[in-house]
Structures are given as structure tokens and as C-alpha cells.
Design goal:
Structural class: mainly alpha
Mean pLDDT: 79
Number of helices: 2
Distance between the termini: 20 Å
Largest sheet: none
Low-confidence stretches: none
Length: 70
């Protein structure tokens, strides 16, 4: 149970970190807001790519834990 909570917390932190990084990269140059984007910065594809990155990271963590148990 503790491992699942840590994985969930890690996934949430990774998701937020990825989105904040994208936001800073887009805000830094001072470009105009993106049309139809959430908060003028995030596109829907950003959320999808953030989700995919988090899924890959969590799967790698689970794979490493299982490998350590052997």
C-alpha cells in the first residue's frame, strides 16, 4: 500500500513538474497567448504528453522495483 501511495505521489509531482516546465518555457520569451489554450499557455496535447511521460516514469519505477526483488 505504501508503495502505491509513493507511486501516485511521484506521478502527481512528475505531471505538475512537466506542466510547469512547459509553462515557464512558453512564458519566458513573452510570446502572445496561444489561441484556445488553457490559461493561454497549455494546449490539450501538453496534458496528453505530460500524462504519457508520467506513465512511462511510473512503469520504469515499477519495473526497477520488481528487478530489485529478484
Amino acid at each position: 500500500m505504501k508503495l502505491k501511495i509513493r507511486l501516485l505521489l511521484g506521478a502527481l509531482v512528475g505531471f505538475v513538474t512537466y506542466l510547469l516546465t512547459i509553462g515557464v518555457i512558453r512564458w519566458f520569451p513573452g510570446k502572445q497567448p496561444i489561441e484556445g489554450a488553457i490559461l493561454g499557455v497549455y494546449r490539450y496535447s501538453d496534458f496528453i504528453s505530460a500524462f504519457l511521460v508520467v506513465v512511462v516514469v511510473v512503469l520504469v519505477q515499477v519495473w526497477q522495483k520488481r528487478k530489485e526483488k529478484k
